[in-house]
Amino acid sequence: MSRFFTTGSDSESESSLSGEELAPKPVGGNYGKQPLLLSEDEEDTKRVVRSAKDKRFEELTNLIRTIRNAMKIRDVTKCLEEFELLGKAFGKAKSIVDKEGVPRFYIRILADLEDYLNELWEDKEGKKKMNKNNAKALSTLRQKIRKYNRDYEAQITSYKQNPEQSADEDAEKNEEDSEGSSSSDEDEDGLSATSFLKKKSEAPSGESRKFLKKMEDEDEDSEDSDDDEDWGSDSTSSDSDSEEEDGKYTVLASKFLKKESTTEKKAAEKKREDKAKKKHEPRKSKRLDEEEEDNEGGEWERVRGGAPLVKEKPKMFAKGTEITHAIVVKKLNEILQARGKKGTDRAAQIELLQLLVQITAENNLGEGVIVKIKFNIIASLYDYNPNLATYMKPEMWQKCLDCINELMDILFANPNIFVGENILEESENLSNFEQPLRVRGCILTLVERMDEEFTKIMQNTDPHSQEYVEHLKDEARVCAIIERVQRYLQEKGTTEEICRIYLRRVLHTYYKFDYKAHQRQLAPPEGSSKSEQDQAENEGEDSAVLMERLCKYIYAKDRTDRIRTCAILCHIYHHALHSRWYQARDLMLMSHLQDNIQHADPPVQILYNRTMVQLGICAFRQGLTKDAHNALLDIQSSGRAKELLGQGLLLRSLQERNQEQEKVERRRQVPFHLHINLELLECVYLVSAMLLEIPYMAAHESDARRRMISKQFHHQLRVGERQPLLGPPESMREHVVAASKAMKMGDWKTCHSFIINEKMNGKVWDLFPEANKVRTMLVRKIQEESLRTYLFTYSSVYDSISMETLSDMFQLDLPTVHSIISKMIISEELMASLDQPTQTVVMHRTEPTAQQNLALQLAEKLGSLVENNERVFDHKQGTYGGYFRDQKDGYRKNEGGYMRRGGYRQQQSQTSY
Amino acid sequence: MASRKEGAGSGSTSSTSATGAASGKGKGKGSSGDSAVKQVQIDGLVVLKIIKHYQEEGQGNEVVQGVLLGLVVEDRLEITNCFPFPQHTEDDADFDEVQYQMEMMRSLRHVNIDHLHVGWYQSTYYGSFVTRALLDSQFSYQHAIEESVVLIYDPIKTAQGSLSLKAYRLTPKLMEVCKEKDFSPEALKKANITFEHMFEEVPIIIKNSHLINVLMWELEKKSAVADKHELLSLASSNHLGKSLQLLMDRVDEMSQDIVKYNTYMRNTSKQQQQKHQYQQRRQQENLQRQSRGEPPLPEEDMSKLFKPPQPPARMDSLLIAGQINTYCQNIKEFTAQNLGKLFMAQALQEYNN
């Protein structure tokens, strides 16, 4: 390419080249440069100098220049001063102005200044940073200029409409301006938008000066690219230029005056030339490519981004070159060296590598080289997206899958190839077929990366689209690959590698419900009628067995804590998912994960949360409401279940975190197909809370020290109470609340109908694999807890109650009723005794009455009041604290005995109140 | 007691015992103050008007209020008339109460009724009237009109058969404190004020003109209305429960208040310590500097460095204590009466058997 730009320095030509690909930027508002570049053609005609006019005008231009300088360094105060001077000077020049008409540059500065001020005014941030003087000056100046400009409105608008025309006259002024200012540019800090604009306007002037020197032999591609690209690099040169020329500024001005015409002519000429050239552009670049290809591949990897894509495949090697291992490897290294460099077309690179594979295959160079190149292809595929946060394109990923598959094929086919990341480049053996081939590279990392990319793709696909389903189908392929790699590594890998790949496998297994195993469990063991097809289906390993095997290996062999933790959690999750509650619970308890999970990294914590939730749901299915409630309490009570499970971000905290954090959090999200249904989760939690809380509430109705078991449940109840009008329940929560109310009255049938009905089935219960079992369990639970609630609430009404009646009322069989009541009596919840011969419960009526309860509470409160009071007293006494504390303890002990709930003792203590 | 001679209440024959309850409490305390008013004499009309006002407008724990009109005669405050404040609703927020009162008094003067403002009345719910609001308005009344009293009417007790009407004034001590507007612990300590000395009760005499008395006797003979025996009702649980509940709430508040106070105390002492330490450090450093011949560090304003914590206003706790006191009195009174009734009932039962 240097052939074309013989004089341009390397960097320059490159930047101008890359400028081609940039779309011409919209030139809104920066009139600064346009007049220079577009309007020079008509320059000569107006270059007549009149002395009187000149004098005044020079004064004006000087002022304007200072104003521009001030504008650049955002010194509004200065601007204001100068603007006032300018107004005066303009008044002096009135006679000339009357003759000549208002000079264009004057209008120009007015318009520019106004725009500049408006811009500053809009820039709230900048305004805040401005010091007081400046801010004050800004507002005054803004008002002044508005007022002033009103007189020149017509001219200004006409100038704004076509700045080129009006700029012609002061083109050189502009140049001078920029020159004068460029030195001040250096101490300019914080490039605001305006200063950018200014800078741009200045840049072309530098450019044009450069033209002076280079004009003769330099071809520029297009103006736009010049503007956008060059000013960055050129401004430095112009800066230095101006620095030396600053002193002899006046001389320079005259020099310019002389030279200008020629320069500008040339610029115009050049422009025309450019236009013509632009048309040739595509052709040229093509030619360029061809030429490069001929270049014996010396620089062939320098494919430029914007250039029209090379359609013909580049030839790798010169014809007739004997292709040997050494050459191929050299080539490969060449290609790889371009990797990561700026301006390297990654797509093309991949293509090249693939071509290289073909060539290698054609030339039978052996599998070793192919494996090596394949490794690199996959790596390049991963490199394709430079940003780690974004996800791979699914197509690229597919390609990657294929590639890995091929690689695995080769590796399986050639057991004599050794692959490892610790094999050094030097010790690689690609060619010597006698010895085992050794290739550097790690299949495991590739697979892990592939898996991660898969997760990313899933994260970034809309879970409700068909696309997601399509992507999800690839999951099977991922699993297959992981399995293959696993098999491969089992033979060759180290234990550490095996652990890692096992974990991958586990991560792809743990969340899937094993329907086959489930079916098998349900089916009668003899099952003689099994068709052959069934048998074939059943041949696959039970996921439970698989999990067991993989996890046990990891438990035994893993040395990094993280993999083991993950494996345990997955194992528990899997157990819980398949309703093996006791195994899951024991594993959880044995691992002691609950104690130290807060030290783990967020993804593991998310996994832990998921496991706990699954554990809770499992407990619920088994009818262990208390365990279910405990397991779910942490997740549900925070109200951030969604966030804790990594199933979505909360909007609430959006303001609290910045963009970076949000990105990180987004990356942690669990893909949709792993999600746990949040409504199911909440329903399970609320129902188990209801089963616990309602009887508890009934038992401790008037106990001051009653603790809420579940805050969230109470919250829901309160929400339900606040409703002014109670319609039939709609949402899951309303159903639970309505059911709770029914249960409070001991009305189990209503409760049952609220919990289990069409709506709730659809929303929640049918989501369980064994929905019917869960439902029967639930009904029974409701009956039992309703019975308990009934007894708590209404025991004071009864003298005695027959168990048969109870069993009829709650449709429970007699032994169950008996056992429930016995339990209540034993745990001193119900003051009653059973009369065996008549099968009745005889109430003892020892529960304190309402007043007694109140009095008890009062006593308790007074106790704490006294205690608090004594603390104040302690404080006053200071040193005697010890004595009083002893006393207080004694006092509290007494209190404790008398305050304790239950039985007979209390009654005596308060009747005398 | 003086009140015995005059009938009041709803004009029924049970008036004797009713007034007894109303004025019985006034003994002793009223004489303690050296205040201008030693006795309150209320017209039967005023009592009836207050009762009527509550029955018409107040329900539940809503409170009705009104203005008392009358005259001061020697050390006796005679209340001869009253009128209610209109009930506030939210839509007439621009309603001017003062304006209304002035209007009302002017109108009353036109018809030649006593129009001098001598206080105000308020109904109460289970005796919960010792509040900040009452304190503030009574203070402003007493500040403006030295003799003014507040009449507290307890409708619930009245419904149980004994008219309950009490007149209260702020003690001079409390007036002093309120004037200072300083409720810090120190100020209250200095004023030596406790919850017992916040309000003073003024004995009440209900007086009717002789003509009315004659009419009453007349009516009593003729009336065929059966006697109502609310007084003998044995049911106690509801009232007692409510009272306990309220008492408990106040105790809770008291507890919180004490905790707050305790924290304050702790904070002050902690700060005191810090201050002390700081001073010591400063001193040491200055000594060192002196030995090195350097000028000592300049004195700094201690109060700026250590801002004393905001002392909690103790007035609230005083009020709460006062309120608790009233509740206890009420409950005591109530239970005493009830026990009496129970014994009576028992005796009756035994007699019948």
From TrEMBL, chain A:
Keywords for this protein: Cytoplasm, Initiation factor, Phosphoprotein, Protein biosynthesis
Post-translational modification: Phosphorylated. Phosphorylation is enhanced upon serum stimulation.
SMART domains recorded: PINT
Highest taxon in the source lineage: Eukaryota
PROSITE patterns: PCI (PS50250)
A Pfam family assignment: PCI
Main location: cytoplasm
Positions of modified residues (Phosphoserine): S9, S11, S13, S15, S16, S18, S39, S166, S909
Region listing for Disordered, in residue ranges: 1-49, 157-305, 522-541, 885-913
Residue ranges with Basic and acidic residues bias: 199-216, 257-276, 885-895
GO molecular function, one term: RNA binding
GO BP term, pick one: formation of cytoplasmic translation initiation complex
Basic residues bias (residue ranges): 277-286
Sequence ranges of Low complexity compositional bias: 8-21, 904-913
Gene Ontology CC entries for this record: eukaryotic 43S preinitiation complex; eukaryotic 48S preinitiation complex; eukaryotic translation initiation factor 3 complex
PCI domain span: 672-848
Family: Belongs to the eIF-3 subunit C family.
Function comment: Component of the eukaryotic translation initiation factor 3 (eIF-3) complex, which is required for several steps in the initiation of protein synthesis. The eIF-3 complex associates with the 40S ribosome and facilitates the recruitment of eIF-1, eIF-1A, eIF-2:GTP:methionyl-tRNAi and eIF-5 to form the 43S pre-initiation complex (43S PIC). The eIF-3 complex stimulates mRNA recruitment to the 43S PIC and scanning of the mRNA for AUG recognition.
Name listed for the protein in its UniProt record: Eukaryotic translation initiation factor 3 subunit C
Species assigned in the record: Vombatus ursinus (Common wombat)
Gene designation per UniProt: EIF3S8
Automatic annotation (TrEMBL), chain B:
Record keywords, A-Z: Cytoplasm, Initiation factor, Phosphoprotein, Protein biosynthesis
Gene3D superfamilies from the UniProt entry: Cytidine Deaminase, domain 2
Region (Disordered): 1-35, 269-314
Pfam hit, one: eIF3h_C
CC per GO annotation: eukaryotic 43S preinitiation complex; eukaryotic 48S preinitiation complex; eukaryotic translation initiation factor 3 complex, eIF3m
Statement: the UniProt record of this protein carries the keyword Iron-sulfur: no
MPN domain span: 40-174
Alphabetized InterPro entries for the sequence: eIF3h, eIF3h_C, JAMM/MPN+_dom, JAMM_MPN+_peptidase_M67A, MPN
Assembly behavior: Component of the eukaryotic translation initiation factor 3 (eIF-3) complex, which is composed of 13 subunits: EIF3A, EIF3B, EIF3C, EIF3D, EIF3E, EIF3F, EIF3G, EIF3H, EIF3I, EIF3J, EIF3K, EIF3L and EIF3M. The eIF-3 complex appears to include 3 stable modules: module A is composed of EIF3A, EIF3B, EIF3G and EIF3I; module B is composed of EIF3F, EIF3H, and EIF3M; and module C is composed of EIF3C, EIF3D, EIF3E, EIF3K and EIF3L. EIF3C of module C binds EIF3B of module A and EIF3H of module B, thereby linking the three modules. EIF3J is a labile subunit that binds to the eIF-3 complex via EIF3B.
Its job: Component of the eukaryotic translation initiation factor 3 (eIF-3) complex, which is required for several steps in the initiation of protein synthesis. The eIF-3 complex associates with the 40S ribosome and facilitates the recruitment of eIF-1, eIF-1A, eIF-2:GTP:methionyl-tRNAi and eIF-5 to form the 43S pre-initiation complex (43S PIC). The eIF-3 complex stimulates mRNA recruitment to the 43S PIC and scanning of the mRNA for AUG recognition.
Protein name in the entry: Eukaryotic translation initiation factor 3 subunit H
